[in-house]
Protein: histidine kinase
Amino acid sequence: MTRPSLRLTFSLLFATVAALVAVGVGALSYGLASALIWQETDDDFDRAAEAVAELTIDAGDLTPEDLAELDDDFDVDLGDVLAGSDTLIGQILGAGGQVVDEGHPQPLPVSNTDRAVAAAEEPGHTRSSEAQLDHTRVRIITVALGGGRGAIQVAQQLSEVDSLLTSLRTRITAVGVAISLAAGVCGWFVTTRVTRGLVRLTRVAEEVTVTGRLDLPVPAGGRDEVGRLGTAFDRMLGQLARSRDAQQRLVQEAGHELRTPLTSMRTNIALLHRFDELPLSARGPLLTDLTMESRELIKLINELVELATDTRELEATEPVELAKIAERVAQRFRTRSSREITTQADGTVVTGRPQALERALSNLVENATKFDSSGAPVEIVIHRGRVEVRDRGPGVPDLPEGRLFDRFYRAPEAQSMRGSGLGLAIVRDVVTAHDGTVFAHNRDGGGATIGFELPEH
Structure:
């Protein structure tokens, strides 16, 4: 089942809310109006009944014939009791309950109870009832003249009130329906305007899914949520495009770098097929060369995996004392390279991933020991978040800024040396992830100073 569009959903929601409000307001309005109309109708009828009762009591021995002879217009002769009302009807009954003066515009029904009231001795005795006259609903009150002389009937037509309330209900319903339709139309236009950007974003996302293109133009702009979403989506596509380009370059560069050790290993493996024919003096170097090539290949693969997966992000951040990391790295390379590694560090503490920072510093020290053949001490200096590794090697080549930290870059004099060309690239990635910067420059008196700077904790 296809779900309705966001535009249709919002339009229906607008119409539903408007309908509920209209129903509530209409019901309240109708209830109040109905109560007021019925209150006024009841008051008119009660006043007429009380006036007729007072007339019968005050008139004394007044007979029905006397009332009928006063004027043919009974409504006026009763002291304007019924005057000014279009819903009241008057009728006079004789002593036996016979009609002496019919009601206008139509006669009222006379029941046995009405005849009993006409024969009552007590003036002002009343009896109430309801009846249906030619599809007109009426309520009737019969008031005794007293002394068995007859009675006066006063009726109120209720159909007009019913028609008025029916008309009022119909109009309120029509207004409610009109408001709901107007709300639905307004909701449609408002939702169309609001979701216009979402619709365009959806089309772009679907096209990206189908084509895989990340260079599609994204509708962005505006300060509302849709505009901010478009801007964020555009930035996300840009980031994905850069990430994909970086991955493609990594694969291309990795293929180029892997080709050299693999070619060398294939040559040496080919020689192994004639291992028995080789002189003893060539067998040892061949096996040593194979071992070193396999180690370099494993190291290159590990560094490629580290760059591609960025597993450093799995490590939690914490306050890190750089002096302790420097001492661990120095001790490790003293044992490994038999070189003198000195440390000079203050109490700088940064927020970061300790293993990643230790790997970055290890790469810098390894780089220094590899290129510095003078035997001079390699110095680790830390001051206020700035980490420097100083050596007395050939120095930093004249390169564009940052080129030294590119993946697989190797200086011309290092082409013949073993290495992956990924060490300084890993340093830059680690430092960038910690909101820091890398640097490299030549050192006074010869050598290089390479390091990074991190914000202090």
Observations:
- The domain at 225-308 is CATH 1.10.287.130 (Helix Hairpins).
- The two ends are 56 Å apart (CA to CA).
